[in-house]
Write a structure and sequence with these properties.
- The chain is an alpha/beta fold.
- The chain has a single domain (31-139), classed as Sandwich (Immunoglobulin-like).
- Helices cover 18% and strands 47% of the residues.
- It contains 2 helices and 8 strands; from the N terminus they run H-H-E-E-E-E-E-E-E-E.
- The protein has helices at 2-22, 26-29; strands spanning 37-41, 48-51, 56-63, 70-75, 81-90, 102-110, 114-125, 128-139.
- The radius of gyration is 22 Å and the shape is globular.
Length: 141
């Protein structure tokens, strides 16, 4: 009989904890922006990104400069977040193949508490824009 009561009590306690265990929202767990480096590969426009001061954001964006299109940084609040680097990396391609794509990697560092919108544009020229990416950046302490 004691085992039945212990099992019932244990099951009740476990059931009470499941909603909290299943909650994966970082704000609830106190981990929002806690990772020192956050990497996003081709994020959707409008994505919310939370960083802590000195935290880094890596954006890996598909790119193929052989088409004439390239990602350009268009808008950034330099008091909140700063661009550290940007580079293009070609994907491995068979020898002799031209026109293969790759990705551009942007690295940003959070500077101070605040909110900012980071805007990048995939374009041949300002008049020939294929895509605009807007990310909502929040730097918390």
């Amino acid at each position: 009989m004691k085992h039945v009561i212990a099992i019932a009590l244990g099951t009740t306690l476990l059931a009470a904890c499941i909603p909290d265990i299943m909650n994966t929202e970082p704000e609830v767990r106190g981990l929002e922006g806690a990772a020192p480096v956050q990497t996003f590969t081709d994020p959707a426009s409008g994505t919310d990104i939370t960083l802590r001061p000195e935290g880094r954001l890596q954006l890996k964006l598909d790119s193929n400069p052989t088409t004439g299109y390239y990602w350009y940084l268009k808008d950034i609040d330099a008091s909140t977040i700063d661009q550290l680097s940007e580079g293009y990396f070609a994907d491995p391609a068979p020898e002799g193949l031209t026109g293969s794509g790759g990705h551009q990697m942007f690295v940003f560092e959070a500077l101070a508490k605040g909110k900012s919108t980071l805007v990048l544009s995939y374009e041949r020229s300002p008049e020939d824009v294929a895509e605009t990416l807007k990310l909502k950046i929040k730097v918390i302490e």
